[in-house]
Design goal:
This protein is mostly helical. The protein is built from 7 helices and no strands. It has a domain of 90 residues. It starts with a helix and ends in a 6-residue tail after the last helix.
Length: 163
């Protein structure tokens, strides 16, 4: 397995805080390079599957930047990760990792941003539950209803600050 294949493999793992566990010992010296290659692939996958809870303008910026986030966008992405998971152990693992790598103030901003991302996620999930399986299938298979669902998704994501 070469470095690009390893990056592709990592990009399919939803928990970036666990990526280090998936790197063979022979690649330990190349860890930063592998992460640098995997991160944009992972972000692109999250955007494509509507699993990234950030403002739509941030998503547009990420696309323009080839999914290579700047520092502020990284905070937003970590906030999205926190919002998308309710496991307290995982949140604590992320907290330790982020504080170790970026410091307490960086973590505080991520945590504060996660509240808006969580509210958007809850709104999206509530709408999906209210629709029911038949309506969700109709949404997935028709352009008109699909566009209405995308509009609602965008309305929820606009709740998240873009700056």
């Amino acid at each position: 397995m070469d470095i690009n294949e390893l990056a592709i493999s990592l990009s399919k793992i939803n928990e970036p805080e666990l990526w280090i566990r998936h790197i063979p010992r022979t690649y330990r010296g190349l860890r930063k390079d592998v992460f640098k290659l995997a991160e944009p692939l992972w972000i692109k996958r999250l955007v494509a599957s509507n699993e990234l809870y950030v403002h739509p303008n941030v998503i547009k910026s990420l696309v323009i930047q080839n999914f290579i986030p700047n520092d502020l966008q990284k905070k937003m992405i970590w906030a999205s990760i926190l919002a998308s998971n309710s496991d307290h152990r995982r949140r604590n693992t992320i907290k330790i990792l982020v504080k170790k790598k970026h410091g307490h103030d960086w973590w505080e901003e991520v945590f504060e941003r996660s509240r808006n991302a969580w509210a958007a996620k809850e709104r999206i999930q509530k709408n999906l539950k209210e629709n029911g399986p038949a309506i969700n299938k109709l949404i997935a298979s028709t352009h008109l209803f699909g566009q209405a669902a995308r509009d609602e998704l965008i309305a929820a994501l606009i709740m998240i600050p873009e700056k």
